[in-house]
Design goal:
The protein is α/β, with parallel strands linked by helices and 499 residues long. The protein folds into two domains: 61-214 and 382-423, Periplasmic binding protein-like II (D-Maltodextrin-Binding Protein, domain 2); 217-378 and 453-496, 3-Layer(aba) Sandwich (D-Maltodextrin-Binding Protein, domain 2), CATH 3.40.190.10. The protein has helices at residues 2-23, 37-52, 56-64, 105-121, 133-146, 162-166, 188-194, 211-214, 223-228, 235-239, 245-255, 280-287, 308-323, 332-336, 396-411, 414-423, 431-442, 456-467, 473-496; strands at 72-78, 123-129, 153-157, 217-222, 272-276, 293-295, 301-303, 327-329, 340-346, 360-363, 377-378, 385-388, 444-445.
């Protein structure tokens, strides 16, 4: 479809240019037979369109067609199979390696990705299973302090890279000139949010990773409850950019029903509008375009918890979740039993809904208001995996080339498998969900504060608003503001001194 659209646009532009030429033409002299600016422009537009039709595979094969490393190993330290949160999707799940083809869509995509990489570069991908994610942090420390060259790169949960970074164990990836973070197979949200001083970046993620996508918070909606209450599916509202918390609440309140007639709405016994299982307020801050810690154009971090719009977002969330009783704590079983219209959850647990009888759909979290430009999706830095290179790596340029190649080949293998898993779950597959999934994955909101070891005071200020059913946010945020600002400034000072 993209190729067709690009060719269509090229044709239209060329016709318009040709029309203008015809309208202004008369008798031409010999000099008029030379290509003019309009002809050149048309050629450039067509060339650009053709270039955009190249797949990631095409680009990376052309980029590295002459590279031959004679079977050299690329050693990737990784959580062991089934560790991290991989077990949520199956006992054999990991992101970098598969032994043999099994017919499983993701397993076979990883095999194809690795095979393509090994054949193009003449390398051997070697996983080094590191056990649990916290063990990997210790392995990095041990290897770097000993000066040993045991692995070339590391994949681990992103929040666990904080300590190795501040300890000086990780390489600044912007000094590895074989990794171009602007290539579309790398996650631009990671790059923009974690590049400090416009010059320092210590981890990345891209199409190699799947758990940076599984970690994204989204909204599931129950189509049966929509049908029962004559509610339109919210897809078009989302696509129109006007999916807001007030519209969300209107739909949520419509379905509330006291099934047992006891006069009390109780999750599990009755039908409620919205359920989440934890971190209720924290997730919604990001949906409303806010962050605990913002990064300015110079790559400097500032604590953002007491600005006017941030407080408005918390007040709005409190009003709907608590005062309007929109939100209840609950798990997937409630949603599967048609006792909640909306469920907030990460994309990772979507497979738990395979046994659900009713149809459901997938949409982004709502905006604060229609003036908000973009949707925002909270990403769990704990579920998210990222890649880093230890400073003991002997050949970072080679490592960069292999990661670049793996990531590009993942765009047409692993990423396709990811979409198939997301949308091939029973009763989810529809054209609208494909469009909204694109929006969800393009709207990731990462934050230096929440989920990292130094960020506990940030998230508690949010979550206590729902947990205590009291809007004490401003008081809590004010009490911790100076300490949080010092923590972030100390973090900046530490990273400023790193190589």
């Amino acid at each position: 479809m993209k190729k067709i659209l690009l060719r269509f646009v090229t044709i239209i532009i060329s016709v318009l240019i040709l029309g203008s030429l015809i309208a202004g033409c008369g008798e031409k002299s010999d000099s008029d037979n030379q290509p003019d600016a309009a002809d050149t422009q048309a050629e450039q537009v067509e060339t650009t369109a053709e270039e955009k039709e190249l797949t990631a595979d095409d680009i990376i094969r052309e980029r590295y067609s002459s590279n031959d490393y004679g079977g050299k190993e690329i050693r990737i330290l990784s959580p062991s199979i089934g560790k991290h949160f991989y077990y949520q999707l199956g006992d054999e799940v990991n992101e970098i390696w598969a032994e043999t083809e099994t017919g499983d869509v993701m397993n076979d995509a990883i095999i194809k990705r690795n095979r393509n990489t090994e054949e193009l570069l003449n390398v051997k991908i070697t996983p080094i299973w590191g056990g649990e994610t916290d063990t990997i942090t210790k392995t990095i420390q041990k290897a770097v302090t000993a000066g040993s060259d045991e692995f070339d790169t590391v994949i681990n949960r992103m929040d666990f890279f904080g300590t190795p970074m501040t300890s000086g164990y990780l390489m600044n990836l912007l000094t590895v000139n074989t990794i171009n973070t602007e290539d579309y197979w790398w996650d631009a949200n990671i790059t923009s949010n974690f590049t400090l001083f416009n010059s320092k970046l210590y981890w990345i993620a891209g199409d190699i990773n799947t758990f940076d996508d599984y970690a994204v918070e989204a909204i599931y909606f129950n189509k049966k409850l929509c049908d029962d209450h004559s509610l339109q599916y919210p897809y078009q509202t989302v696509l129109d950019g006007i999916w807001t918390i007030d519209k969300f609440n209107d739909m949520a309140q419509t379905v509330v029903h006291d099934l047992n007639g006891d006069g009390v709405i109780k999750v599990g016994d009755d039908i409620v509008g919205h359920i989440e299982n934890n971190d209720h307020v924290k997730h919604w801050i990001y949906a409303m375009g806010e962050k605990s810690v913002d990064i300015d154009p110079d790559g400097i971090l500032t604590v953002n918890t007491l600005n006017e719009r941030h407080i408005l977002a918390v007040d709005t969330i409190y009003h709907y979740m608590v005062e309007a009783e929109m939100t209840y704590s609950g798990y997937e079983e409630i949603f599967m039993e048609d006792k909640a219209l909306f469920m907030g959850n990460m994309l990772g647990p979507i497979n738990k809904l395979r046994g659900m009888t009713s149809d459901f759909g997938l949409i982004p979290m709502p905006k604060l208001d229609e003036d908000q430009k973009n949707y925002g999706e909270y990403v769990s830095n704990g579920w998210t995996t990222a890649l880093a290179i230890p400073i003991t790596c002997q050949d970072p340029e080679f490592t960069g080339i292999v990661l670049d190649t793996m990531c590009a080949f993942s765009n047409t293998t692993v990423r396709y498998a990811l979409y198939d898993i997301m949308l091939n779950v029973k009763l989810v597959r529809d054209d609208e969900s494909l469009q909204t999934l694109d929006i969800i994955l393009a709207s990731k909101a990462y934050d230096w504060a929440v989920d990292f070891s130094w960020g506990s005071s940030f998230q508690s200020a949010y979550n206590n608003v729902y947990n205590t059913k009291k809007n004490n946010y401003v008081s809590a945020a004010t009490k911790t503001f100076d300490r949080q600002s010092k923590t972030i400034n100390d973090l900046l000072d530490t990273i400023r001194e790193l190589p």
